[in-house]
Request: fold
Amino acid sequence: MKDIEDPCMEMEFKPDWPQACERFEAWWAGEVMDRVALQVTSPRDGCQDADHQRSTHNQWTDVARIVETAEERMRVTFYGGEAFPVYFPNLGPDVFSAYLGSELVFDAHTSWAEPIIMDWDDMPDLRFDRNNRWWKLTLELIDQGMTRAPQRYFVGLTDLHGGMDALAALRGREQLCVDLIERPDAVKDLMRNVITPLWFEIYDGMYQRSRGKQTGTSTWLTAWSPGKWYPTSCDFAALISPDMFDEFVLPDITEEVLWLDRSLYHLDGPDAVRHLDSLLKIPDLGGIQWVPGAGAPPMTEWIPLLKRVQKAGKLLHLSIKADEVEPLLKTLSARGLMLSTQCATETEARRLLSDAETWTRGV
Reply:
């Protein structure tokens, strides 16, 4: 048996992980091996998914069933190229705010936090209590996965929307927009002295939980790196101007990027594009994960934006349709490009990987 510290050991659900691991390192370095970095999943030949019916509450809190369901999904999935199996402990995008005292509300698809900052002059006690029930549940989700994951799959970090997204959840988005005008110093003070430092503490608490049982990090965005990595983000930025972004959001993003070993920025939707130039100027930011957003044109319609990112020397991570792989490779550089897609069958997925080698050579 290989040492558990070997980051490129074979895995039950990903026997070709050593090769994928090499390509991940090449991608982070902005290089290309035999083909573009390509993540492609499909149903695995000969496997039938089991049916798991759960109530909304159990869907989020039944730890054993959550891990069981994740493993069943991995069992029936073919992970081609740089796709790999990840169990993602997930309590929704506002869980960071719940760690600081907000209450989480769940539905079948997501969760959200109830605001608790009602008056800047009468602030709640915003602190990270390690006995917080949502933090304890997060650790339970991680630990349950870690007992079963070695040499089978990775256990990722939960969705940590810190920064202004956390403050928007704690305060309410509309009210926070007003606060940026009426109480800018209070906003900056809370960000600098509470929210940003606690993001590092909470991230590290999860990261250290996995040390010794797996090497490296993955997240809701299934890229892998041997150290600390995360897709930084600020969905709230879609509501504010470039000047406000630079004043209120950019300092926090820059601190996260400097603290992490590797990073991407999750740029989500057309309303976030106005902040791209500011992001590309962050020297240590690794790259951009661009998401056109619901109802937006397909990825092939965003070529000028994608070329701006590559011209700035940044990586790109794109989730696309399978039939977009070839046209994108005819237009973009394969260096530093990661494409993620799905196919209907394992045969189609394997063919796409083979075709990508030819299309890459033609770039």
Remarks:
- The first strand starts at residue 37 and ends at 43.
- The radius of gyration is 21 Å.
- The chain is about 40% helix and 15% strand.
- The CA atoms of residues 172 and 309 lie 32 Å apart.
